[in-house]
Amino acid sequence: MLLTSCYQLIGEFHYMRVYISCDIEGVAGIAHWDEARKSHQDYAEFRRQMTSEARAACEGALAAGASAITVRDAHGTGRNIIGRELPPPAHLIRGWSGHPYLMIQEIDQSYDAAAFIGFHSSAGAGGNPLSHTISSRMLHAIHLNGEPCSEYRIHAYAAGLVGVPVVFVSGDQTLCAEVSALQANTRTYSTKRGEGASQTSVHPDEAISGIRDGMRMALSGDLSRARLQLPDSFSLELTYKEHTDAYARSFYPGAELLAPHTVRFKSGEYFEVLRALQFLI
Ligand SMILES: [Zn+2]
Predict the structure, then answer these.
(1) How far is the CA of 76 from the centre of ligand 1 (A)?
(2) In sequence order, which residues have a C-beta less than 8 Å from that of residue 24 and are 6 or more positions away?
(3) How much distance in Å is there from the Cα of 105 to the middle of ligand 1?
(4) What are the structural domains, with CATH classification, of the chain?
(5) Averaged pLDDT for residues 82-101
């Protein structure tokens, strides 16, 4: 059967495929790296919250008529979400394949919509005590075409590459503002607001119901309205914390050392940007 990028209508039934990528630094309540690290005792509580928010997104998708759901565990080891707690139609991707689609690996044009849950503001931004992009250890900031680049932006463009609209994003308030500025038709739900090393969060249960309702509503309208138009060309600038990392990575094909801490890579193909990120971080 030929898959299409919009609803498949058979009789009265909609067959909708939804891809949900989940991170932890934007879930309700999380305020410190100890709470995001598997090896620390503070992690268990937020692993549960991440799982509950992922489940809520699945439930919202099912309420909107989704018949197939892929959940991507996209934090750290990729082994955080407790699979048993997701509703049975959901498939769960754990671990990292090494594919340049990173946090949305295995997405393709067969999906009708994508959603990002528990996402967070970018490296170099405030708005979350855990703000970073891809690597908090190595990178000070990433800019794409002159603008600070979050994990949301990297993967929203990647979804755009296969024509899948990102219809819903949950995470900190600063990220939600970035999402709305880039694509006003993407629905957002803010779990918390960061202030320096602190954050103020909605109640964990309120986040769960907000994500469930937000997801259902985001999937109920015209999904194509949230599709992103990709820029014609890309200039990626990675600013490393250590100049030694910048120097070593400046030898990636097509990359150049722009400043002691900054490597630039330019391409007209977004997949090449994703490939570069895979090797430059
Ligand atoms: Zn993460």
Answers:
(1) 6
(2) 30, 36, 46, 47, 50, 75, 76, 80, 118
(3) 15
(4) 16-131+150-230 (3.40.50.10780), 232-281 (3.30.1360.130)
(5) 96
